[in-house]
Write a structure and sequence with these properties.
- The chain is an all-alpha fold.
- It folds into 2 domains: 105 residues, no CATH class; 76 residues, no CATH class.
- It contains 10 helices and no strands.
- It is globular.
- The two termini are 33 Å apart.
């Protein structure tokens, strides 16, 4: 039997590797227009995140979709300042189109309810990223915030993971408190 930590490190390594590949694609796009966009790692990542199915017969597994979301988050953090606009130009249209589908399928909320501890932490971080996004994305997920509020409150009150409780407490504060108070609390103790 092996420890979960090497698996977790391997997952983070894969996420970072894909993110760096996306950064390299963005850099290549900035310097040349000859890069094939259809078969790119970025296109694949977006398709896997936004697709309801991985194939004709199999539903896309929730942990895999969360990993794809983390790849995009990591790429956004790693890309150079010059590449941020290009990356946003490629990511946002696809994500904005599918955010309604993601909100309806309640990707983050499902993972918060049923996932392993690592999946629930990843889902909470994804929810935080969505909540700190552009206004269009926040409007798209606003219908699911009532359910998110009750799920977050239950986790804060009953979950055994202190890290998950703290993260959910901060998210709950963002949902329930006036903006100035929430931003002040987040600034003091960042997610």
């Amino acid at each position: 039997m092996f420890s979960i930590f090497p698996v977790s490190k391997a997952q983070h390594g894969c996420i970072d590797c894909l993110a760096l590949m996306i950064c390299a694609e963005v850099q290549a796009l900035e310097s040349s227009q000859d890069v094939a966009v259809e078969s790119s790692v970025l296109t694949y990542t977006i398709q896997q995140l936004t697709s309801d199915k991985m194939s004709e017969n199999a539903a896309c597994p929730l942990p895999f979709r969360l990993c794809m979301a983390n790849v995009l988050i990591s790429a956004c953090q790693k890309v150079s300042s010059l590449g941020k606009h290009s990356l946003a130009r490629r990511i946002l249209p696809a994500l904005l189109q599918s955010v309604k589908v993601m909100a309806e399928s309640e990707l983050s909320i499902k993972a918060l309810k049923k996932g392993s501890e690592k999946e629930r932490i990843a889902a909470a971080k994804l929810m935080a990223s969505l909540m700190s996004s552009e206004e269009e994305i926040i409007e798209s997920i606003s219908t699911g915030l009532a359910e998110a509020k009750s799920v977050l409150a239950k986790i804060v009150a009953t979950d055994s993971s202190p890290e998950l409780q703290q993260l959910c407490r901060k998210l709950l504060l963002c949902i329930t408190s006036p903006l100035e108070e929430a931003f002040s609390a987040l600034a003091k103790n960042r997610l």
